[in-house]
Amino acid sequence: IYVEWQANQRERTKEWHAYRQKEEAEEEAKSSEYREIGMRMKAYPQEEVCKARVLVSSFIRAGEDVEKVIEKAAERGELTELVLMVIWNRLDVARRDDEKDAIRSLDLLYRRVETEILRSEATPAMRLLDELLNIHDGSDDDKWLKACRKHMIENFPREDPFTMVFPPGFDMEKHDGQIKLPPQDDDVLLRVDFVREVDELLKEVEAEQEKSKLHTGYDPESVATMLKQQEKLRTIRQVEALLELAATLKW
To answer: What is the top-level taxon of the source organism (predicted)?
Structure first.
């Protein structure tokens, strides 16, 4: 009996050591992964890294006001690639720890900040297109197009030669002396430039759509892909409607 008990104890001890070795290997692998995540920002000055971390923490603490906080940070020019990297690192850690709520929140935060950075880097035409698409509330297309027409008229300068050169209210008959032209504004967006850029964008997107046409089945992944494609097509149809509206716009 004693010999049998010793054999069982040795077996249990062996299993325990194997279990501990496995746990230690997993802990070491996790520590190595965290070190790798931390090393990603070594190329940046420590002061900038600290500022980016403080900014990301302010987004997380903002709760329902996160949109306003992000927009103010964008106005101050604080949204950078480093800020995105800090969010990505937090997201990576959350994924490795399987923290589902944190993963969802950080993923949304990453997308929102990335969108704001892309928006700030976009041309005036693309920024206006984004504004027009965001006017749509998902219900009435006719009401949306009327609102877009009004927004376009407010943004595009009139295109007859006189009003393009002289300010509103200028009276040629009552004016005395030399006529000075108003200073050029680099941010002025002409309707023709908007039409050209949106038309080019549509051609690029439609070419990509042709390449990515897939025959989908009815499994969950295929259905999800199909729904994403349908959403893209809806947006393309909206952009086409905006292009038509801008091309035929009359004051």
So the answer is: Eukaryota
Chain CA centroid to CA 111, Å: 5
Residues 88 and 26 in one domain: yes
Predicted confidence at residue 43, as pLDDT, reads 79
Q: How far is CA 96 from CA 27, 31, 108, in A?
A: 12, 11, 18
Give residue-wise pLDDT tens across range 160-209: 654 544 555 555 556 555 555 445 555 688 999 999 999 999 998 888 77
Q: Which of 83, 98, 122 is the endpoint of a domain?
A: 122
Task: Please indicate, yes or no, whether residues 8 and 115 belong to a single structural domain of this protein.
Answer: yes
Please give the angle made by the CA atoms of 226, 228 and 230, to the nearest 5 degrees: 70
Task: Give the per-residue pLDDT at 223.
Answer: 62
Which domain covers residue 65, as residue numbers? 2-122
With CA atoms as reference, report the closest residue to 251 among 153, 147, 151: 153
Separation of alpha carbons 166 and 162, rounded Å: 6
CB 158 within 8 A of CB 164: yes
Number of domains forming the structure of the chain: 2
Q: How far is CA 60 from CA 34, 57, 69, 177, in A?
A: 21, 5, 10, 60
Residues near 241 by beta carbon (within 8 Å), at least 6 away in sequence: 141, 145
Question: Are both 239 and 140 inside the same structural domain?
Answer: yes
32 and 114 belong to one structural domain: yes
Task: Please tell me the pTM assigned to this model.
Answer: 0.56
Q: What are the structure tokens assigned to 100, written together?
A: 């589902």
